[in-house]
Amino acid sequence: MKAAFITGADRGLGRGFVDFLLQEGYIVFAGVLEKGGDLPQAQNFFPIPLDVTDDVSIELAVMRVLQQTSSLHLLINNAGVNKNTATGNQKDLVSSLPDLDRKLMLKMFEINAVSPLMVTKKFLPLLLDDPSFVINISSDRASFHHQEPGDYKGNYGYRGSKIALTMLTFCSLYDMPKNVKTFAVHPGDVKSAMNSKGTQQPQEQAEKILNITKNWNDKNNGAFLNYDGSLFPL
Question: Which contacts (CB < 8 Å, 24+ apart) does range 166-175 have?
Fold first, then answer.
C-alpha cells in the first residue's frame, strides 16, 4: 500500500488531497496544526500535529510516520499563508510598499518557501519508492506573466514567497536521489478558506495534480507546472 504525507491537510486543497488519496487506497498522513475538527475516520488515515516552521515538530512527525511505514510515495508541501491569513486581514502590511512590515514579510517567506524545503529535508530519507514525488503547491502569482485584474496592490509577501518556492524546487534537483521527482504547481482557482471565491473544488484539483505523477515525464522534473501538467510560464 502506497503512503503519502500532506502538510496543511485539514482544509482546502490539503483536505482535497486527503479525501482523494484515501479513495485511492493510500495510507494518508495528514500534517495539521491541531488535531480535531472534521477529519476522516479511516484505518489508513493518521492525523499528525505539525508546525512546519518548527524543526522539532517536523522531526516528531517523521518519527510518527515511521511507526506506521518505512517509506513514502508522495510528500505534498501544501501548507501556506496568503496576504490575509498571514496578517489577520491587515493585508497592506505585506501588500503595499508604504505599509510593509518586515516581520510579517519574513513570516510569509518562512511558511511559504523555507518550510517546504525543510520538510523535504527531514522526510527525504523516507522517499524510497521508485519513483517518489515531492509536490510543492505554488501559485499563478509566482509568474511574472500573471496580472489578474483586481489583484491587490503589490501583494509582495505572497507573490515573492511563492516564486521563491518555485526556484527552491528547481534548486532541490541538485540534492534529490534519482528516484525522487519534484515539481511546483499552480493548483488552479481552488475554493478554500484562503480563497473563498474559488471556482474549483479541492478534491477535483487534487486529482488533476496527482495525475501529473501518474503520467510522469522527466522533462518536468524541477519545473513549475499548471495543474493540467502543462508548463506554467515564469
Answer: 166/136, 166/138, 166/142, 166/224, 166/234, 168/113, 168/116, 168/117, 168/136, 169/134, 169/136, 169/138, 169/222, 169/224, 170/222, 170/223, 170/224, 172/117, 172/120, 172/134, 172/222, 173/221, 173/222
513570516: which residue's cell? 107
Question: CA geometry: angle at 29 spanning 15 and 125, to 5°?
Answer: 130
Give the three cell numbers for residue 58: 517536523
Q: Helix crossing, 12-23 with 202-214: angle to 10°?
A: 60
For 59-109, how does the pLDDT look when each residue is reduced to its tens digit (9 = 90+)? Answer: 999 999 999 999 999 999 999 999 999 999 999 999 999 999 999 999 999
Q: Are 115 and 53 in contact (CB under 8 A)?
A: yes
Nearest to 30 by CA among 57, 5, 67: 5
pLDDT in tens, 158-173: 999 999 999 999 999 9
Question: What's residue 37's pLDDT?
Answer: 64
Query: Which residues, in sequence order, are bridge partners of residue 125?
Result: none
Strand partners, 180: 132
CA dist., res. 36 & res. 25, Å (int): 22
The Cα 167–Cα 117 span in angstroms is: 11
What is the reported pTM?
0.95
**Cα angle: 206, vertex 207, 213; to 5 degrees:** 100
What average pLDDT does the segment 18-31 reach? 98
